[in-house]
Every structure is written in structure tokens, then in C-alpha cells.
Amino acid sequence: MDDKWFKSQQKRVGITADQIADRLGRDRSVVSKILSGKQRMTLEWGKAFAEALQVPLATVLEKAGAADMNVTQTLTPGFSESDAMPWTPGPGMAEKAKAQSIAASFGGERPGIDVWQVKKSMILGGLLQGDFLLVDTHQAERTRAGDMVVAQIYTRTGATTVVRRHEPPVLISASADPEDQRVHVVDGQNVLIRGKVIASWRM
User: pLDDT at residue 7 above 50?
Assistant: First the structure.
């Protein structure tokens, strides 16, 4: 169990152990036991941590020592097929400074508000590959009809992060791709909303 990694991720997104425990309706002490290695990280808890810390489930399980490389490799491919991913700036400082400046103008300097980048076109939502999204994770449970959201869909083979329009209780695709047209019901377990898209831009 790499507890230092988990604590640094909590600090990065501005989330407490209480908030992680609340996702499963459990006491904070369970989170403490997991982080101290006194209780095993289950898949259910792994999903809660992954959603709260905004990282892939495979990474959570690997850092918790709950899965070997063979398991994490079967979980990771779903993320490579995702609609969007948290943005990681390239080597150019100018691009980083510009993106951070734009994000700040939309209120993106607060914890829990992250810059994401679109990985495939969602023309019906006005988004093209390479566009930037500002995602407010604090509004994950307070979205309304018509909001664009970042959600995670878990299956037996892994997890996929998607950008969809929320029309409670379902998520509607913004892509013209026939393979993306399936409607997903937000059930809080297999389909989870991770955050609300509060702004988007193109550079």
C-alpha cells in the first residue's frame, strides 16, 4: 500500500477521507484502515477511490497492492479508448501557461476543478479532438438536465471515461459515431458521473 501516493492524490484534488467514505456510505475509519494496510482494497473501494481521486481504477489497485500487473493491464485499455483524459501539459511551457490562464479565467484555479482534453470528436456537443474542458468534480452529484458531464463506465473488462449530456437518469452521446450511441443509466455503481463540464475551449 503506497499511502503517500494516496495522500498526495487527495491533496491534489482537495478531497478528504470522510468524502471518500461517504461515496459508499461508510465510516471514515474504513478508509484509514485501507490506507494503513489493515484492510484490503476491494474492487468496490477501488472504484470509489478512482472516482474521488480522478485517476484510473487500474492505478488505484496497483498503488494499493491489490492487483498484479496482469490485472492492471486488463483494466487499463478502457481508459485508452476514453472520450477525454485529464490534461497533461507537454514540454512546451507556453502551452501550459496559456491553458492555465484560460482555465483560471473560468474559475479553474480552485481544487477539484481540472483541465481535461478531448480525445475524440463529439461534434453533436460542439467538441473536437484536442479541445480543452474544465471539469468541476464538486458538481458531480448536482448536475441538471442538459449538462455536459465526464462520467466513468465500468464493465468486466475495465473502465471507460466518457463525455456525455446528462438527461436524468441517463447519459446521451454527443458523438456521431454509431458505436457511441448506447444510452447509459447513471446507477452510482457501474455508471458514475465524475464531474460537470463548466467550460470548453480550443487552442
Answer: yes
Output the DSSP codes for 64-106: TT-S-HHHHHHHTHHHHT-SEEE----S-HHHHHHHHHHHHHT
Q: How far apart are CA 114 and CA 107, in angstroms?
A: 10
What tens digit of pLDDT does each residue of 47-83 get?
Answer: 888 888 887 777 788 788 765 444 444 444 444 457 8
| CA-based nearest residue to 58, from 184, 157, 164, 190 | 157
- Which amino acid is present at 187? D
Grid cell for residue 190: 457501474
Rounded alpha-carbon distances, angstroms, from residue 145 to 23, 171, 180, 186, 201 = 22, 10, 20, 13, 22
Where do we find the cell 437518469? 169
**DSSP states of 155-188:** ETTEEEEEEEEEETTEEEE----GGG---EE--S
Q: Return the amino acid letter for 201.
A: W
Is the whole model's pTM more than 0.90, yes or no?
Answer: no
Mean pLDDT score of the chain: 81
